[in-house]
Design brief:
The chain is mainly alpha-helical and 252 residues long. It has a domain at 143-252. The chain contains 10 helices and no strands. Helix 8 runs antiparallel to helix 9 (215-226). Residues 230-252 are annotated as: Disordered. It comes from Acidovorax lacteus.
Length: 252
């Protein structure tokens, strides 16, 4: 009798444990399904936001800037980082019915960059590098500021940022001086990433980014920079590129 009671008790314990495990598995399965559904919904929402901003960008280019400005500002104020980048570009450049406001344009772009927008970092680097961001009536490049923003973009591992930074160093503006080794590292990394993106089909052209860059251009620029280095320096640059990972500082 005692043995039967013990066996019954053990059976109840086992059944309870298995039932609990089954409920836990069901809960985890539902949570995973909910997480996947939320990820899909978030991706669709992000795509919709991007398409809205890109449509505004196209309207601005067609000369409808006065109407687009208010919509871009509304979306930017609602927290859309991409809209904030577009707003910054519109205000910084002006034209097509949009009055130029350099201060407000830079502020919008810097706010987007602080939110982590690599696109904003690239646009800021380009604006300072070409002189669009200058306060005077004539464009005046600010290489140090261009380096700051390109380097921030490059440090994320973005191929466009690496290419732009490498090209800036290769150009050796007087404010920065010659930096062929740093240029070699950045261009080498840019070429590697662009080649990988081309192979995997993940390379895309962003209509809000007007800069150039391709694996072919990066390799060509790399060859020109390599001519300024000794064999030992080229090997040092290659090893530096091999060891570099996104998030780490790049050589200057």
């Amino acid at each position: 009798m005692l043995a039967l009671l013990v066996a019954s008790a053990v059976g109840v314990i086992v059944w309870t444990s298995q039932s609990r495990q089954h409920r836990t598995a069901e809960t985890q399965s539902r949570q995973q399904a909910d997480a996947q559904a939320q990820a899909v919904a978030d991706a669709r929402a992000e795509l919709a936001r991007r398409e809205r901003v890109d449509a505004l960008h196209q309207r601005w280019l067609r000369g409808d800037g006065a109407a687009v400005l208010g919509e871009a500002r509304t979306q930017a104020n609602a927290g859309d980082t991409r809209a904030r980048v577009l707003l910054g570009q519109m205000l910084l450049r002006g034209g097509a019915g949009v009055p130029r406001d350099r201060v407000a344009g830079l502020a919008a772009l810097e706010q987007a960059a602080q939110q982590g927008s690599v696109l904003a970092m690239l646009v800021l680097g380009h604006a300072y590098g070409t002189g669009i961001a200058s306060a005077g009536p004539r464009p005046e490049a600010q290489p140090e500021q261009a380096e700051h923003w390109y380097a921030r973009a490059a440090r994320t591992g973005d191929a466009r940022g690496l290419y732009a930074l490498g090209q800036l160093y290769a150009a050796a503006p007087p404010a920065l001086g010659p930096r062929p080794l740093a240029a070699h590292v950045a261009l080498d990394l840019a070429a590697r990433r662009m080649e990988a993106e081309a192979t995997t089909g993940t390379m895309e052209r962003d209509p809000l980014w007007t800069g150039d860059g391709s694996a072919t251009l990066a390799r060509y620029a790399l060859q020109r920079v390599a001519q300024q280095l000794s064999p030992a320096e080229r090997e040092q640059a290659r090893q530096t590129a091999d060891a570099w990972r996104a998030g780490l500082p790049l050589p200057r």
